[in-house]
Amino acid sequence: MNQNLNQENNMGKRAIPLVDLEKFTKGSEADRTAFVAELGSAFHEVGFVGVINHGIPKDLVDDFYKASKAFFSLPVETKRSYEIKDMAGQRGYTSFGKEHAKQSQVADLKEFFQIGQFVSKDDPRKPEYPDNPDVKEVEGFYELGKGLYKAFEKSGGALLRAIAIHLGLDENYFDPKITKGNSILRAIHYPPITEEPKNAIRAEQHEDINLITLLVGASAGGLQVLNAQKEWLDVVPGEGEIVINVGDMLQRLTNNYLISTTHRVVNPPKAEWHKPRLSIPFFLHPVSEMDLTCLQDTVTEERPLNYEPITAGEYLDERLREIGLKK
Asked: Domain named Fe2OG dioxygenase: which ranges (predicted)?
């Protein structure tokens, strides 16, 4: 049996359901229908789902992990040379202690590097998407990041097609909205903890801003998800598995039919404080002009309208201010 299917949490079962994306991308109509049902059920019951056969090459993931580890090992002053003023952390490096959860003023115990959309110099969207900096001290960093970004985009697009079917929309509903979208690949480094944290954990409980997040397994544990029963469950992706969760934009669009899932990264036991943690999520965003007005069919007597109309760009701007990245 696939070791992923055997992954268990402390309660004797997986913390999150597991689905096989190839059932949707390469399967029969029956397979595709079953996948959509499994994915929808996972999002409604837990909000997080593990995915295997997602099409993101393991070698690419491993090589970008190595490159990211090399970057975060550089001297602080070298890393800070990649911190881009007035970019709200959307390209390049963000130093330790700058980001916090929206309900907290205590900074998370992390630093990170973000890679954004790639477009040609003559693309009409170029003013929206500044160049991604290359890290000259780490060979291959730029090309590996670009390759992984494109692989995540492809897999994320397939997952959104399944989500569109689940929502009763045209399968390709999201395609034009995410083509050249404002997605972000983030390499997050949680350094070793050297002293008793002052009311801070590696990442305080939060929800993601975007449509969906795709996350490859981290170098150490700590990720927890809050389930419908308000229990914190440990999430440890198996070999070759990525983890997907609903973000706030999809929650708004569906008028809370799909819920953005609360999660956090807790500090390890004191005996493991010396261990750093490296994590690589991909935040799948649409183009800025996407209308996040609640879908008509999701507004019902039982679920009245929860949100005023807003575009994805306006919402992103609002949230970046809330978490301290934009002033």
From this structure: 180-286
* Cβ-contact 241, 51 below 8 angstroms: yes
Here the tokens at position 76 are 């602080």
Q: Which residue has the tokens 């997907």?
A: 244
- The pLDDT value recorded for residue 106 is 57
CB 46 within 8 A of CB 227: yes
* CA 111/CA 276 separation, integer angstroms: 11
CA distance 78 to 183: 26
- Which bin fits 81, alpha (ψ -120 to 50), beta or left (φ > 0)? alpha
Q: How many CB atoms lie within 10 A of CB 16?
A: 25
The model's pLDDT over 283-312, given as tens digits with 9 standing for 90+, comes to: 999 999 999 999 999 999 999 999 999 999
Q: Structure tokens of 282? A: 């991909």
Residue 296: half-sphere exposure toward Cβ, Cα within 13 Å: 1
Query: What superfamily would CATH give domain 3-322?
Result: B-lactam Antibiotic, Isopenicillin N Synthase; Chain (2.60.120.330)
Chain centroid to Cα 209, Å, comes to 9
The helix (run of H) or strand (run of E) holding residue 216 is strand 212-216
Q: Which of 217, 229, 235, 326 is nearest to 279 (CA)?
A: 217
Q: Identify the bridge partners of residue 124 per DSSP, sorted by sequence position.
A: none
Give 196's pLDDT tier (boundaries 50, 70, 90): confident
Q: What is the pLDDT of residues 41-93, one digit of tens each?
A: 999 988 889 999 999 999 999 999 999 999 999 999 999 999 998 777 789 99
Instruction: Name the DSSP class of 1.
Output: -
Q: Give residues with Cβ within 8 angstroms of 325, minimum separation 6.
A: 88, 89, 90, 94, 98, 99
